[in-house]
Amino acid sequence: MPKRRRDGCDLQDPQNAGSSGSGAVHSPGHSTPKTGGAGEGRSTAAAGGAAGAHRVPLSPPLFDADDDEDESHLPALVLDSIVKVFSTHCTPNFSLPWQMRKQEYSTSSGFVIEGQRILTNAHSVENFTVVRVKKRGSADKVTARVVAIGDECDIALLTVDDAEFFRDMHPLPLGSLPHLQDRVTVVGYPIGGESISVTEGVVSRVEIQQYSHGATELLSVQIDAAINPGNSGGPALNARLECIGIAFQSLSTREAENVGYVIPSPVVNHFLTDVSRNGRYTGFCSSGLEWQALENAALRRYLGMHASETGVLVRRVYPLSGAATALRKNDVVLEFERNRIGNDGTVPFRRNERINFNLLVKNKYVGEQCTLRILRDGKRLTVRYQLDESSSLLLVPVHEKRRQPEYLVVAGLVFVVLTEPYLRSEYGERFEFEAPVKLLNQLMHGEKRHVNEQVVILSQVIHHDITTGYQALNNLQLLRCNGEEVRNLAHLAEMIDAFDGEFLRFALEYEEIIVIARERAHRLSGDILQQHFIPADRSICHEAEFAEVDEISMAKVRRRVDQCKAMSGTAPPEDVTESGRAAEEEDADEATMEGAGRAQQRGRQRGRPRRRQPPTRGRNRPRRQRTRGDTDA
């Protein structure tokens, strides 16, 4: 199955240009910066946008055909709602997690929606340190704040503190899901020039696709309009000048021409509603199970299904998911939310169309209940359970959500947490072919058995007298420490700190074992750290430190939305007054908490700088390969 490339940012990386196998999918999102280019670099593209749930009527000047500023058939006010996004990215060195890589720059696209907010792609601001935006026709770049990042859906929400920035900018409304052969216009700032670019095409396909950035299967719209590096984050518009989606990835030109993909408006609306409800992004749901198609008649008879019944077979239930409370292996799922499931795992979609029933799962929100009709041991039952966030069930994370990767150094033994960015750092973009089989098995098929479980691996052994004989060991999973199973890196640190015996014993996979003298290890650790310029022996984060974005006060965002609704007449002034007062009270509380949080963060940074995952460079991005019929965990 060909891989896709994210289209948002332009990142020209000379070392990786052309480095991908056939069928690779690119995300022309950023383009890597050229050496020595001060303000240029990865040109993250994509301008475009989605509006909130309420459509804002277009004013007559939008259709003024005599407007000299129009550069195409699109009205000037539509073009003016699209911005260019300039991002500075600082990537952690996952192989040496106490270090940072050289910062990189990218440009991409974004567009204004109601509430003085800007939509773009998540990969456009990946590992950001500074994000700036520039209006069409302006020479000034204005600092933007990242409100929320949704890695699974590849969407990021920005805002600008100065309300003057949004003066005379018309928010783009979100349209409905397009139909086949509907005309579509993609607008953004791709490579090849500095001014805004407009391309046209038609809708070629609407189906579930795997998003290259988040490795999650969500609804996607395929179009034949050109989507190039730098287009990421830009809007795709229909004939009514409504945004039907956000440009984000395309097939490699080695495989096909003019095959681009758009994040459709239902996915964008789900993201915006999630952030509005919870004050942050919580993610998309997982059914908590993996299933097998029942297209074989003998298998259906063996399971006791009637000739008129259809469904799918449950082959695995994730132990920490809500599904574990209601489903068992070898159950047959006949219906999901009263929608009959076909033997191929599809449900009716639109007229003469069917789609994977996973769409029904992704349309729900984290924490909501779902109802299934199942067949178990010849009995037909109705069960209900709570849906969980998809990434919370993955044993090996696709994205590193901490600003600095976790690590622990014990007398030269460097332990880290297994993540997909770590494998990419160690083995390159073809890590799915180069990494050890056992680590790949954990990545592809690992499941959590208890909360906060991690795969802890011995990344490398720093050569010293105390580690003589072990220096060749690397990238092996740590199974036990002093005979006790290791649950996560924090658990390992606790066990070592509390141990008062003579020898520390580490049991690795492939029956490898490491034994070091505890007192000598404690005595020599400082010298080893100093010799290799390692600032601290550990960086172990807690759940409260998982912040992925430089959060803006959600109270301010809510107040802006209310004010915009009041001006457009969609909300009564008294409601705005009450919500405004509540927002001001929240601001006061958050200001106090934010000040304390920043002081604590500065204290942490003096000892151990915090870092996050690497930005996308427009290269082919390997994806988790799942067999047909699997749901997203």
TrEMBL record:
GO molecular function per UniProt: serine-type endopeptidase activity
Domain Protease Do-like PDZ span(s) in chain numbering: 396-539
Record keywords: Hydrolase, Protease, Serine protease
Short name of any one Pfam family annotated for the protein: Trypsin_2
Annotated segments matching region Disordered: 1-67, 565-633
UniProt biased composition (Basic residues): 601-626
Parts forming coiled coils: none
Family: Belongs to the peptidase S1C family.
Name under which the protein is recorded: Protease Do-like PDZ domain-containing protein
